[in-house]
Amino acid sequence: MAETMSSSQATPTDLYLERLALETQDREERYKLLVGDLDKHDMASLHAALGGERDCQSKDSDDPAALSVGRRLALAYAEPPLAPPEVLSTDTSGITRLWTAPAMKRTPLAPQKWSTNPFVNIGRRFKRWANGDFRRRKRASPSASWKWVASRRRWILLVLIFGQSIIAANQMRTVLPGQGLEWLEITILSLFVLLFAWVSAGFWTALMGFFQLLRRHDRYAIDSEVGDEPIDDEARTALLVPICNEDVARVFAGVRATLESLRSTGNDRHFDIFILSDTSDPDTAIQETYAWLVLCRDLDAFGQVFYRRRQRRVKRKSGNLDDFCRRWGALYRYMLVLDADSVMSGQCLTRLVQMMEVHANVGIIQTAPRASGRLNLYARMQQFATRVYGPLFTAGLHFWQLGESHYWGHNAIIRLAPFMQHCILAPLPGKGSMSGEILSHDFVEAALMRRAGLGVWIAYQLEGSYEEMPPNLLDELNRDRRWCHGNLMNFRLFFSQGIHPVHRAVFLTGLMSYLSAPLWCLFLVLSTALLAVHTFSTPDYFPEPGMLFPVWPQWNPTLAVGLFGVTALLLFLPKLLSVLLVWIQGSRRFGGPLKVLASMVLESLFSMLLAPVRMLFHTRFVLTSLMGWAVQWRSPSRENSDTTWGDAFRAHWSQTLIGAVWAAGVYVMEPTFLWWLSPIVVALMVSIPVSALSSRVSLGRFCFQRRLFRIPDETQPPRVLRRMVSLLSRMNTGMAAPSFAQVVVDPVPNALATALATSRHNDVEPIRRRRAERVARGVRMGPAAMSRLERLDFLDDPVMLSQLHYHIWDDSMAHHSWFDCGLPGRESKHLPTFN
């Protein structure tokens, strides 16, 4: 500050008014600031004069800059005003405040303790029976007939899976040299049965989904009895967007496109939107508030779009939803949860509410989000897979599960009253990595909703629900690391009291989604070990004493080929059926019939290359989770980012080495066996180039131009997606929020941040003294010396932020970096517009 003063030969008040005048809209007001008769005796007098106070001592002298917050905002945003009077007002202390959320209507929430010990649960049931008060729980359902149908279908599914697995196990036994009688072969056979049953379950799910979609009529679909009924005025829905250190432009482009689509239906009066932030980065938090203000000003959405950033970030996403339910849940009948990358059309949102209104005993309706929006080759192949194969599996899940279905945590509507009463999650008891806060909350919330007697359904035919895929393999694996730990934790609830058998199966399938990797890995290792045993050991032709005839080891390659073919058929037939369904329903939007087939073949080959890589990564995830290693809970990338060769090498060098050593060892033992193992070891050895090249946007664009991996949302993009892409492009080039230092130093950004700060503490001596100490330290040390948490504390506290602003301008000994970083140039920080 001293250097600035000496170079300009101006007083701090003159410099302050010059900076404020730069942001002032009205020319006359700007002239008054520069040559008017404002009291510029000192900074306190100047703020009092700006605030309309003749006597600066009439207000609390600890925070002189608070007097001018409203005036600074009025000068910068004269026409149109920054916000309506009911939004931009003053609090009980007279400090200007910008209200970002509605008035609270608190509801007490209390999670129920978990009972995960099966013996304790059996004992409690026996005790109730002995006391004569054992009664079967009555479960309501949206339809009187679907439960019987679902039960019959599930018994059929179990017979198909286990019958098929038993036949395959018998075939596998005849393939093994010792006919499955040795301990090593018994272990291999047991692993084979588990893995084959897992593959069989997926096959029958996809097969029934194919027939379901081929019929085009499902009497048990959740929307089969729903018309276009008007929505009751009391049926208000909150759209919740939980975010944490996300790409701000992408989040708000999606929210804005969703809101505009909703308004086009004329039903937007039934919906409010809440941006629920757990962001811990101060600069990102500032960007979020600016983006919220821009959205509200452009669309006149004050009172409809709200923003809240939590200061106490507990339980991650589920805690964020709990916080909303506790504060505002009583104001709404439904909540609809979106992800940071979600986009939904107004027709889809309206339809979900209409379904809920018709089916009073439904607690959750999950849509089937369609993946779109990525340009990387890897992501485009995943988008193609989810768009072509995904409908079969989703329809198949609905066929087997009906009203005891999945909830995936986003793009789903939830009935709020039972959710608040029954689905608040308590931490898992005990110590270690498998206890504490529940990470994968969605499966558990669905199970609790069904335990409360309400149905959980998938609206698999509903269009207008979209999401994005991870752009590359490494980002997907980073996400899988969190999901793996969460699903392992959830399996502790398998024996929890009152959970429906189908949701116990959901916990089991969630476990097998990741446990199948180490089981497969162990199966391959033991198969190699079996080869080594028969290569380096002398066969025992007379295993029992007194035998007259030798027992010859048998190897039947014909049976092995047949078993391999059956397994491959179970894995790849659903993909062929998916392509057939696309041909029947029309393949033009997928690039044409030949392009769909070529894309399926290429995607299948690519999946074969990635399967062994995922196997080793998931095996490591399972082991590290069980050993208690910490999970890094970072938000996934929302950009079309390429994987560098260095990142690919650091991530995959160990898989490459394992593949090379494995191949060499098998070649030494039995060269012919290497042909059977080549899909595994070759995929591991080429994992580095596959990971790096598949992330390339250029290759993705090349395939798009040749109509490979084309999806309908690229050929004929829906209006809501086109609008989101247009907004995202404009926001990436036009949105420039100030940094933390600018928020502290620059008069208008500081006034805006002070008005947005939400902490309101009682004016007591300990708090006043603590504020003074922290402000004094910040003035002396500069922004670089402040930690991220300290910056967030200042952004949350309007008094500290205002005091820091005042003392930096008033104290000649303030650290010079405040002005170097806080006043970088003469560019305007006015809120842009994207109308």
**What is the 3D form?**
elongated
How many distinct beta strands? 12
Distance between the termini: 40 Å
Q: Low-confidence spans: pLDDT under 50, at least 5 residues? A: 1-8, 55-59, 134-143
As a whole number of angstroms, the C-alpha radius of gyration is 32 Å
Strand content: 5-15%
The secondary structure category is alpha/beta
Report strand order across the widest sheet: 5-4-3-6-10-8-11
What does this structure look like?
This protein is 57% helix and 6% strand. It is an alpha/beta fold. The protein has a domain at 12-103 and 738-822. It has a seven-stranded mixed beta sheet, sandwiched between helices. The chain has a three-stranded mixed beta sheet with strand order 7-12-9. Helix 10 links the parallel strand 4 (271-277) and strand 5 (305-309). Helix 7 (146-175) runs antiparallel to helix 8 (183-215) and helix 28 packs antiparallel against helix 31.
Could you write a compact summary of the structure shown?
This protein is of the alpha/beta class and 835 residues long.
Give short descriptive properties of this protein:
835 residues; alpha/beta; seven-stranded mixed sheet; 57% helix; disordered N terminus
